[in-house]
Amino acid sequence: MTFLPSTLAPPSLFKDLLVEPEEARSILRPQKDERYGFGFALSPYRGCGHGCRYCYVREYPNALHKPGEWGQWVAPKMNAPELLWSQRHKLHDARVFMASATDPYQPLERQYRLTRRCLEVLLLCPTTEVIVHTRSPLVLQDLDLLRAFGDRLAVGLSIPTDDDTVRQVVEPHAPAIPSRWAAAERLAAGGISVTIAVAPLLAVHDAKAFARRAKASGAANAWVGGLRLLKEDPFYKVLADHGWLKILNPDYKEGIREAFQETFPAKKRMREARPRSSPAAVAVPTPQPGLPGLFDRVG
Q: What are 85-96's pLDDT values in tens digits?
């Protein structure tokens, strides 16, 4: 597989967002998830331009930036596809979650295309399953590539509320809720398995109507996840100021969950529920001659 050289550009500002391209030392992070059981998390970017006010990643130590600056900087991992290719031997019969600490389709993906290039590597790993998680309709730019994975890829769309006025307060730089519904519909119509992730759960106007809307989008599944807050989190004040503290009540979460469980019966996990296959009409690229075997160690 041939890669273009990954040259580092000097730090630059894009609409008040500091962009600092970097060379990463690793790209696959072992991770165990109670819901998906996936083996590795893959993040082509460090930092996230969406800057959601509740994001748990704010607590992570960072050598270059203070936690209070979350959402104001992004470091594209320019060598992410090359690193992934060199470590592909780890991916045999594994599941990859893309991504846990950043949105793989944040606005900079339109320019850097690191997520797409990593997906092109994963496409060449025939026993690897992929879960792409995003809150952005930018995922649609790769619809052709996503379809090429067949049944071994699913897309999770984060829609944590049915009220876009709530989104404007807590996710001011993220795409509007109506655009996410439109993305879910197009993905499902294109044959992609879509999961609506009501996570982290925010204020909801009508839980049953919310669940029906998710089903109508063509989503195959949905789940409700709680909000993870930091110690002495300033987000508490945001919730209090808007009268949304109820979302921290376990009974509130359970009520929303029950509405979705009624609409989406429990399903088996991806690996158990679907046989591996690729659409016959989609051509899957093969590595160029002379490259090591797919799961051979490199270096």
A: 999 999 999 999
